[in-house]
Known about the structure:
The chain has strands spanning about 10-15, 15-20, 35-40, 50-60, 70-75, 80-85, 95-100, 105-110, 115-120, 120-130, 145, 155, 160-165, 175-185, 200-205, 205-210, 215-220, 225, 235, 245-250. The protein is mostly beta strands. It has one domain: Jelly Rolls. β3 and β4 (about 50-60) form a beta hairpin. (2S)-amino(carbamoylamino)ethanoic acid (UGY) binds near residues 233 and 249.
Amino acid sequence: MLPNLGETRSSLKSDHLLQTPDTFIRTPLPGTAGVEFIVHCGPRIGAGFTMMTAEFSAGGLLPDLPGDIQRFVYLVSGELEVCLQTTEQAVHSVQATHRVVRGGFVFVPAGSPHRIQAKTAATAVVIEKSFIAVDEKITKVCAFFGQEDDLPSEPLGGDPALQVKRMMPDGTAYDFAVNTMTYDPGASLAMVEVHIMEHGLLMLEGGGIYRLGDNWYPVTAGDFIWMAPYCPQWFGAIGKVPAKYLIYKDWYRHPLAK
Length: 258
Ligand code: UGY
Ligand code: MN
């Protein structure tokens, strides 16, 4: 076997990052126990959100978040227990415990006491973002749980070979979207997109070619991509199995919103 001669598909440019598993570095984060994080993107790279892969040992714990930060978790493998403390009415405080398994997801709004604990070794995608309220009338949005398999899927732009599942509810109460997109072999985005929204993307299955800016990259399951606002982007699926990715985008807010 050849020694490592410093080669990788990972690539960092001013408007995008392709981060491949051979370059992942794991780190603990304060307040957590029994969890290692691969921090894919965050403010240090210019992103308005963080996207991380959390690798839990059995019993590993993710506690509350401070202040105005919301959290979305999608489970890639294993089993998590999510305990939510809801204070719908000032006098009542209700504790709800949910089991989340592969393909399951949970959204926890800002300021919601909760704890996420692994029942088994588990791997999850964790997205965190400061909440931007759309107006004073919506002060708090609801927590929810879901299972990707139970969601309806829609063809993107009427193309049945490209199916989208939306995990965040539609509507201006929420300031970001998280979708999965599944491409049949040979399917592609119908156009090169250039848009104000930024993306965090984790390839879950299959592979293909991702165009980012003026670069065309081969990508495969396990790869992460960050796309800055206005990064030209296009994907075509290659291979004998469908290509699927999970994708974050900021959503439903005026460009001048703080
Ligand atoms: O929602 C999106 O902007 C999506 N079509 N972008 C992408 O897949 N790169
Ligand atoms: Mn896009």
